[in-house]
Amino acid sequence: MVLTALATVAALKFGQTVIVPVLFALFVALLLSPAVEWLVRHRLPRVVAAALVMVVLVTLVGAAVSATWSPAREWLDTAPATLAKLERKLRPVTRFIAKVESVSTQAGRMTEPDAARQQGPTPVAIERKGFVQSTQEYVLAVVSMVFLTLFLLATDLGSMGQRGPPGSPWAGAGAIFLRVRGELGRYFGAVTLSNLVLGVGTVITMYWLDMPNALLWGVVAFAFNFVPYAGSATTLLLLTVVALVSFDGIGKALSVAGTYLVLTTFEGQVLQPVLVGRRLDISPPVVLLGLWFGGWLWGVPGIALAMPMLVSVKAAAQEVARSRAVTRTDQDVETVRSRAEHWLRMSAQRYGRVSRPMAGRRDTAVQGDGDVAPPGRR
After folding, report:
1. For residue 211, how many other CB atoms are within 10 A of its CB?
2. 3-class state of residue 366 by DSSP
3. Integer Cα distance of 205 and 199 in angstroms
4. Element (H or E) spanning 4, and its range?
5. Do residues 158 and 33 lie in contact, with contact meaning Cβ atoms separated by under 8 Å?
6. How far is CA 359 from CA 231, 282, 352, 362, in A?
7. Which of the two residues, 92 and 188, has the higher pLDDT score?
8. Which residues are paired to 373 by β-bridges?
9. What is the DSSP letter of 159?
10. In angstroms, rounded to a whole number, what is the distance separating the alpha carbons of residues 64 and 56?
11. Residues 81, 84, 90, CA angle at the centre, nearest 5°?
12. Cα separation of 254 and 87, whole Å?
C-alpha cells in the first residue's frame, strides 16, 4: 500500500501537464451541469445547451478580464518604480536584516572546518523555459480545458452509473456523481456569494481610502479568496505594499491593512459559515495540509484545486457511508422477514401434524349403542 501510494503521487507529479487541465475541466463541468440540465428540461438539445453555457462563461470571464486589464497593466508597468520606492522606505528594516544575516553567516563559517569550506558544491546553471514556450503551454492548457469542459457538459454523466448492473463497481457511481455535484455547487455558490460581498466591500473601502485602482483590488480580493487562508493573506500583503508606496507615512497604510483585515475576518468568520453551513465544514488543519500538498504537487494550480478536491472527497465519502448504511438496514429488514417466514412455516408444519390424528377421530362413526365402527364399515 505504501509503494502504491508513492507511485500514485509520483505519477500525479509527473503528469501535471495532462492531469491539471482535466481536473479543472471536470470541476467546471460539475459546477455548470445543473444549468445544462435545466436547459435540457426546457426541450433544448444537450449539445446546444452545453455550447450556450460555455459561451456565457467565456463571455463573463472575458468581460471581467477586460474591465481589470487596463489598471492591472498600469500597475505592472509601474512595478519596478514601485519596488524601488518600497525599498527606499524599508531600507532601515532591510539593513537590520542584512546585519543579522551577516552575523549568522560569519558564525557559521567559524564553526565549519577548512576542508568543508574548500570542497563546496559546484554551481550548476539551470536553463529556464522561455517566455514564448511558457505562454504556448498555458494557452494550450486553457484551450484544452475549454473543449474538454464542453465535451463533458455535452455528456450525460449523471446516468453513467444507472445503466450498469446492480452488482457492478459502477452501480453507485451515478449517486456519488449527483452527491458530489450537489455539494460542490452548494459550496461554491455560497463561497462565490461571500467572496462577492468581500470584493464589493473592498472596492468601496479602497475608494474611500483613496487607494489607486480600487476596482482592481476588489477583483483581486474576490478571486484570491477562493483559496482559504493563503488568498486573503496574499491580498492583505499586496494592499499593504501598495499603500506603503502610494501614501506618505505609515498611518494610511495601516488604515488600508486594518480595513481589509476587518472585512476578511467578517467574511470568513461570520458570513461564510452562515452560507456554507456545518455539513460542508472541513477542519482547518485538513485544509492547510491540502493546500500545502497541492502546492507541493502542482504549484499554484494545485493550491487552486485543493478545496474542490477536499469537498469532492468528503461528499463522496458521505455518499458511500450513506449507501452502506441503507444496505445494512435492508439486510436487517430481510433477516427479520426471513425469520418471520421461518416461524410461520414451522408453526404450519406443527399444526399440520396435530390435525392429522384429529381428522382420524372425526372419520370414525358411532354405531348402535356406543359401538364405534371402523371407517371402512360406515
Report:
1. 23
2. strand
3. 10
4. helix 2-14
5. yes
6. 89, 73, 11, 5
7. 188
8. 365
9. G
10. 12
11. 140
12. 18
CA 38 to chain centre: 23
Asked if 182 contacts 159 with a C-beta cutoff of 8 angstroms, the reply is no
Instruction: Report the alpha-carbon distance of residue 18 to residue 375 in Å, rounded.
Output: 92
**DSSP string across 21-40:** HHHHHHHHHHHHHHHHHHHH
CB 44 within 8 A of CB 167: no
φ/ψ bin of 299: left (φ > 0), alpha (ψ from -120 to 50), beta (otherwise): left
Question: Cα–Cα distance between 76 and 376 in angstroms, integer?
Answer: 118
227-243 pLDDT, tens digit per residue, is: 888 888 888 988 888 88
Task: Please check whether residue 342 is in contact with residue 335, taking contact to mean a CB–CB distance below 8 angstroms.
Answer: no
The domain segmentation of the chain, as residue ranges, is 1-113+134-155, 170-324
Q: Cell 499554484, residue?
A: 300
Amino acid present at 26: L
Question: Contact at 8 Å (CB) between 316 and 179?
Answer: yes
Specify the residue for cell string 499603500: 243
The string of DSSP codes covering 47-86 is HHHHHHHHHHHHHHHHHHHHHHHHHHHHHHHTHHHHHHHH
Per cent of the chain over pLDDT 70 is: 66
- Output the pTM of the full model: 0.65
